[in-house]
Amino acid sequence: MLGPHRIRTPRRLIAAATALCTAALAGTLLAGPASAAPTGTAPAAHHPAITAAAAPAAVDRAAGSKAAGNKVVGYFTNWGVYDRNYHVKNIETSGSAAKLTHINYAFGNVQGGKCAIGDSYADYDKAYPADQSVDGTADTWDNGALRGNFHQLRELKKLHPGLKVIWSFGGWTWSGGFAEAARNPDAFAQSCRDLVEDKRWADVFDGIDIDWEYPNACGLTCDTSGRDAFTGVMRALRSKFGSNALVTAAITADASAGGKMDAADYAGAAQYVDWYNPMTYDYFGAWDAKGPTAPHSPLTAYSGIPRAGFNTTDTLTKLKGLGVPASKLLLGIGFYGRGWSGVTQAAPGGTATGAAPGKYEAGIEDYKVLKTRCPATGTVGGTAYAKCGDQWWSYDTPQTIGSKMAFKNAQGLGGTFFWELSGDTANGELIKSIS
Fold first, then answer.
1. I need a labelling partner for 426 at 20 to 30 A (CA). Which of 29, 144, 234, 403 fits?
2. What pLDDT score does 135 carry?
3. Quick check: 238 pLDDT over 80?
4. Where does the UniProt annotation place the signal sequence (predicted)?
5. What domains are there in the chain, each with its CATH number?
């Protein structure tokens, strides 16, 4: 069991960490352009022609994939099976599976320059009884039998033949390993393919997602791999996985001048990915303990927003301006809220004394809890906020997601992704508002 993952969402932007790392990055940033989370043996691999030749993402995909603009990608966390008690079966019973085109399975680790298992018990060893399994059949302890989330995902895909599953590596907690991986990207990519295509679960996964927070910039730790390191990693992954596998990446949403988006060549790497997931949430939060209060996932800027370039519109405008095609950009939505306590002002921009209480971590709470505990009282920048007692929260609702879908369609984006499935209601209220 991985404590750090279970108690926090690996998507935070922490100003303190960035400040501490500024000096470490200064030389790198100034040297170039402006730069700123095992029944029997598994079937054979389902990627019929994985080649060694590097190739940009193929246009045609396997039967069942949706047209550009309609992707719905949801993160499923392996640690969610513990305290959160959220399992693959919940994806089915909530109605979410019928809406999803892709699941991002989070997270695999990055250690010693290689892709590695994140949580072996949750991933492939936990035995599910019949009443908790997707197909109503209990896992077995037969020699070589696949159990855990991987087996449940296999059964979910049988119910939904068009559903694709992508294994995400890194995240906020485990991004420190990418620095070593970037020093030998070909060896890293080979290790990733070997793991993703392991014969025990090769039929479960349709590709790989890289969640490096952040290339040549600061997250939980600071990276000084250089501006071209991310491109090198994505190029190597495409080469090793070939054109028939999905290769995607979650990337920074920081569109500020000299911010994280300028630290790596996201435009150059775009040719190797099927799409990017710009993390257009966690722009603001109670890591700034005294505020000002601000919505963590604004669609647009608004009068008084604390920082320029910290909103979805600016993020996507900058990426497109750099040359990333709109069809390779997905709109990110958080299925959770961020909040402060000690707040007296109902409107955004108020002062606070600290983070609001949350079940798993202070300052963050699931939508399914907030919708009744602290109902929305207003909207700003295309998202909702709520004032209840001395607490101030921001989160998306079905109504604000509807507006974001209109924006997504008008911008010609490739679809929508969200963090993460367990934050939704038991009947999938938020995912059902995604179109």
1. 403
2. 97
3. yes
4. 1-36
5. 3-40+61-279 (3.20.20.80)
Which DSSP state fits 121?
I
Nearest Cα to Cα of residue 208 among 240, 178, 231, 232: 240
Q: How far is CA 309 from CA 22, 149, 364, 434, in A?
A: 19, 38, 22, 25
DSSP assigned state of 122: I
pLDDT of residue 315: 98
Whether the model clears a pTM of 0.85, i.e. scores above it, the answer is yes
Distance CA(256)–CA(246), nearest Å, equals: 30
Q: How far apart are CA 389 and CA 96, in angstroms?
A: 33
Tell me phi and psi for residue 325, to 5 degrees: -60, 140
Residue 266 exposed, middle or buried by CB count within 10 Å (0-12, 13-18, 19+): buried
Where helices occur in 356-397 by DSSP H, the ranges are 367-373
- Catalytic residue list contains 213: yes
Q: How far is CA 325 from each of CA 85, 240, 434, rounded to the nearest angstrom?
A: 38, 23, 22
- Of 230, 78, 99, 53, the closest CA to residue 153 belongs to 78
For the cut 90, the answer to whether the pLDDT of residue 13 exceeds it is no
Which amino acid is it at 226?
Answer: G
Tokens of 205: 């996964």
Cα(193)–Cα(137) distance, integer angstroms: 30
The phi, psi pair for 304, rounded to 5°, reads 95, 5
Q: Which is nearest to 385 in space by CA: 369, 400, 406?
A: 400
The answer to whether the CB of 268 falls within 8 A of the CB of 229 is no
> How far lies 210's CA from each of 81, 213, 346, 357, in Å?
22, 9, 38, 31
User: Which member of 213, 365, 420, 429 is catalytic?
Assistant: 213
Q: Which two tokens stand for residue 184?
A: 């030998």
Packing angle, helices 185-196 and 229-241, rounded to 10: 40
pLDDT over 80 at 300, yes or no: yes
Tell me the pLDDT tens digit for each residue of 324-372.
999 999 999 999 999 999 999 999 999 999 999 999 999 999 999 999 9
CA–CA dist 18, 20 (Å, integer): 5
- The residues, any chain, with a CB within 8 Å of residue 82's CB and separated by 6 or more, are 1, 6, 122
Q: Are 173 and 167 in contact, with CB atoms under 8 Å apart?
A: no
* Percent over 90 (pLDDT), the chain: 84
- φ/ψ of 234, rounded to 5, equals -70, -35
